[in-house]
C-alpha cells in the first residue's frame, strides 16, 4: 500500500504534516505561486488525483468516483510577503501561510484523497492571487468551470467553527493634480484635497461605521502619497449585505472639488443560512469530534464572495487555524487542530455525498432540473 495512506484508506498524519511543512517551505507570495503549484500538482497526482495547472496558474486536482455530486474544495496558494522561519515547536507548525491559507488547503487535499467512498467527483483547487484586489485565480475558476453541486472555501475558521459569510469590499483610488504654488497660498493643495476626500468618505459612512460589526461598513485609508502638487489615495471599504455602492461612490464624487475617484474593485457581501447543506455537513463533522460548533461571519473578504456572485449553490468557508494569526510574524497552526480539520472535512464530504446532482443547459447556461445520483 502507498505509505501516504493508512490501511483504512485515509491519509496518514505523518504524510499530512509533511505535506503542510513542505508547502510552508515553498515561498508563494502573490504573483509568485508557480513553484508551490508545481509541487502540489505532483503531490496530488501521487495521492490519486488527476492534476494540472491552468492558464492563470491555479492548481487543480480531480478525483472521479462515479456519477454522484461534484463537490469543490477551493483554497488559495498565495500568501502576503515575508518569510518567517519554518519550524515545529510544542505541537505547532510555524511559517508564512500556516493559517492563511496553506493549512486549510492542505487539509482539503488530505480529506479529499481519503474520501474513497465518495460516489461522485471531488475537485480541489489552489487558486492564485487571492491576497490581491483582483482575485484573478477565483475569477478564472468561475469563468471556466461548471458550477459544482457544493463548494467549501478554505480559510482559517478554527477547526470547530464554520463561516457563513463575509463582508464585501469596495476599493477606490483618488488622484488629483494642482499647479505648483507657495505653501502659504490659500489655494487648495493636492495633499489637502486627498485628505478632504477621505473625510468625505468617512462622513458619508456615518458615525456607526465599523470594521467590528458585520452589518455596518468600515473604511480604511490604505495608502496616501501626497505633496502640494500631486496626490494619490487608496481607500478600501468593507461593505455589508445590501450596501448601495453606487450611492456611496456618487456621494463622494459630489463632494470633490477637484481630482478623480476611480473604482478599482467591487465585490458584494455574501452570507448563507444555518440550514445550508454545506454548513450542516461541516457542523456534523465538528459534532462528530465531540465539539460544539460555532457559526460565524467575517468582516473581511474571501474568494467565497467572488464565487457567490455567480454560483447560487450550497457553500460555506472552513479551515483549521486561528485567523487572528493571519499575516503575523509568528503565524502558526496547532498540528492537532490541523488533523481535526482534515477529519471534519472528511466527514463533511461523506455527508455531501447525498446531495442531488444539478446540471446546466449547455446551450443557455440555465440550471436544469436536479437529478438524483445513481
Description:
With 374 residues, this protein is of the alpha/beta class. The chain has helices spanning 13-25, 34-46, 102-113, 136-144, 190-205, 245-254, 277-288, 303-308, 335-352, and strands at 50-53, 59-64, 70-76, 87-89, 92-94, 121-127, 150-154, 161-166, 168-177, 218-226, 230-239, 260-267, 270-271, 294-298, 315-318, 332-334. Helix 3 (102-113) packs across helix 9 (335-352) and helix 7 (277-288) packs across helix 9.
Q: How is the biggest beta sheet arranged?
A: 6 strands, mixed
Give me the strand/helix succession: HHEEEEEHEHEEEHEEHEEHEHEEH
Poorly predicted runs of 5 or more residues: 361-374
Radius of gyration, CA atoms, in whole angstroms? 23 Å
The average pLDDT score comes to 94
Q: What is the tally of helical segments?
A: 9
User: Which second-level CATH architecture of the largest domain applies?
Assistant: 3-Layer(aba) Sandwich
Under CATH, the homologous superfamily of the largest domain reads Zn peptidases
Strand order of the largest sheet: 1-2-6-3-7-15
What percentage of amino acids are in beta strands? 15-25%
| Coarse structural class | alpha/beta
Overall shape: elongated
- What is the CATH topology of the largest domain? Aminopeptidase
Q: Total number of β-strand segments? A: 16
**Spatial separation of the terminal alpha carbons:** 30 Å
- CATH class categorisation of the largest domain: Alpha Beta
Q: Give the number of domains.
A: 2
Portion of residues within helices: 25-40%
